[in-house]
Design goal:
The complex is a heterodimer of chains A (about 280) and B (about 300).
Chain A (H helix, E strand, L loop, with lengths): L18 H4 L6 H11 L5 H26 L1 E3 L5 E3 H31 L3 H5 L6 H29 L11 H20 L5 H17 L11 H9 L1 H14 L5 H28 L2
Helix pairs in contact in A: 2-6, 3-4, 3-6, 4-6, 4-7, 4-10, 6-7, 6-11, 7-10, 7-11, 10-11
Chain B lengths: L6 E10 L2 E11 L4 E5 L6 H8 L7 E6 L8 H5 L2 E4 L11 H11 L4 H14 L15 H12 L6 E5 L7 H16 L3 E6 L2 H7 L2 E6 L2 E6 L1 H8 L3 E6 L5 H8 L4 E4 L4 E5 L2 H10 L6 E6 L2 H9 L6
Parallel strand pairs in B: 3-7, 3-8, 5-6, 6-7
Antiparallel strand pairs in B: 1-2, 1-4, 8-9, 10-12, 10-13, 11-12
Helix pairs in contact in B: 3-4, 5-6, 8-11
Amino acid sequence: MTLRDASLRGAPQRPSRGHGVAALYAGNARSVVGRGLLATRSTNWIVVLTGFVEPIFYLLSLGVGLGAYVGTVQDAAGNDIPYAAYIAPALLAVSAMNGAIYDSTWNVFFKLNYQKTYEGMLTTSLGPFDVALGEIVLALLRGGAYGLGFLLVMQAAGLNLAWTAVFALPAVLVVAFGFASLGMGITSYLKTFQQMDWITFFLLPMFLLSATFYPLAVYPEPVQWAVMALPLWHGVELVRGLTTGVLGPAMLVHLAYYAVMIAVGLAFTTRRLRALFLD
Amino acid sequence: MPSTPVIVAADLVKKYGDFAAVDGLSFEVAPGESFGLLGPNGAGKSTTMRMVGAVSTRTSGSLAILGLDPNRSGPEIRSRLGVVPQADNLDNELRVRDNLIVYGRYFGLPLRHLRRRADELLEFAQLADRAGSKVDDLSGGMKRRLTIARALINDPRILLLDEPTTGLDPQARHILWDRLFRLKEQGTTLVLTTHYMDEAEQLCDRLIVVDKGRIMAEGSPAALIREHSTREVLEVRFGSERNAGAAADLEGIGRLEVLPDRVLVYADSGEAALEEVTRRGLQPMTSLVRRSSLEDVFLRLTGRSLIE
C-alpha cells in the first residue's frame, strides 16, 4: 500500500477555519497524491518510458553524433565546453518538462472528461486546491523521476562539469512544478483530442528554439527577447548554469520566473476546478 | 416526534443565465426520513441535488443542510454526506476495494479504520468476492452497489441518490432497492430523485413532484394518489387512430386522459367502469384495470407523462 502517510492523526478533519480558504483547501492534498501513486500501478508504462528515453536519443544523436562535427561551444563564462555538455542540461530541463506535461495534460484530460475523477473527489470534503495541488505534485514527481534518470545518464557520460550539478535536481523539480501547474489549468479548457494537439504545437517550437541546441546570441535581438519570455528558456539556463558551474545573479531571475509561473498556475487551476465542479 | 430537519430549503432558485433550472423550491427533510424528488428529465431534480450536495451554489433563496449553509460551509457539509451521482464516477484506475479506501482518504479518515470499513461495506454491497477486481469488469448493477458502498464510507448523515436505478435491469434494480431499504431501516436519511414511480412508491416516505423547477405536489405516495387520482384506473385501447374518437363516447364514466396509444378512465372501481364501457356498445381492443400510481398523479398535475 502506498497510502501510508500521516494518516493516523485521528478523527476526520473538519475544516472550520475562515470560510474563504476552507472552501478551497482542506489540507488533504496528500490523499490525492496517494490515489495517484496507487493508480500508477495500472499506468501505461510504454508511454511513460518514451517520455524518458526521448531526450536520451536527442543527446545521442545531436550531442554525440552532431557534436563530433561541432566540437566545442563557449559557455556563459567564455570557457570552451564539449557540445554534448552544452546541450545535455537543456535536455535535462526538457525531460522534466515532458514528465510534468504528460501528467498534467493527457492524464488530467482523461480524468477531467472521461473518468470524472475530479467530480468524484469534489463531492468529498476535498477542496479544489487539494485536487490541484495533489495532481500537480504527482506531475512534479514524474518530472523529477525523468530528470533524475537523465541526470544519472549525464553523470555516467561525464557531462556534469561542476559539483553544482547536484542542485540541478531541485532545479528540475522547480521546472516541472511550473509546467505542471500551468499545464493543468490550460488542460481544463480543452475538450477534444484536436485541441490537445495544440499543446504539442506549442511545445515543439519551444523545445527547439529555447537556446536548447545553440546559444541565444545567434538570434536577432527581437527574437532573443521573445525566446527569453518562454518558460523553457529560463529552465534551460538555470539547469545549464548548475551543470556547467557557471553561476550568476541571472539564476535568481530564472527562479523568480518559475515562482510566478507556479503561483499563477496554482491559482488559475484552482479557479478552474471550482468553476467546473463547484458552480 | 419533533426533531430538527436535516435539510431545509426555502424558495430555492438556481438560474443558468435567464433559464431557471430550479424555480422556487421549498421543502424540509426530517432525520431518518426517506424523501424523494419525482419528476421527468429536466425538471430540476439533479440541480437541486447538486445544491443540497454543496457542489452548486444557489442563485437565491435559503438552504440549510444539517444546520449549515452550503455556500459557506461546503467542505464541512460534504464531509457528512454520501453522494451517489447519476452517472457512475468510480475510479477505473483503482481496484474495487481500493475505490472505497481511497475515497475515504479524501475525507481525511485514517487508513486502519478505512480498511475495516471497506470490508464491511463490500459485504453490505454483496461485492466481497470482487474486492480485487477491476471496476471495468463489474456489471452495471455491481457498479451502482459499489458507488453506494463508496458513498457510505464516511458514515454520512444523509445519503443523496440521483436516479439510483436508471439504466439497470429489473433484477439489478430489486437488489439495489433491497440494499437501500436496509439502509432506511437502519435510520439513514435518504434523499433520492427518480422518474420511476414504482421506485418512489417503494422507497419514499414522502416526496415532492417536481416539474419545470417547481413543486407540483407534496405528500406520501399513498396520499398523493388519494388526493390527485382515483383508486383504480381503467386503460382501454381502441387503436391509434380511434382513441380520440372513442373518448367522446366515454364521457361521464370517469375523468378521462387521452394518450396517443390509449385512453385512461379514472374511477373508484375499474371493473364497474369497464362494464359501463361495454354497456355503451364500445369494444376496446384491449382493456386493463390497475391501481392508480404516481404516474397518474403526474399526468393529472402536468398533463404530461413522466417518461416521454
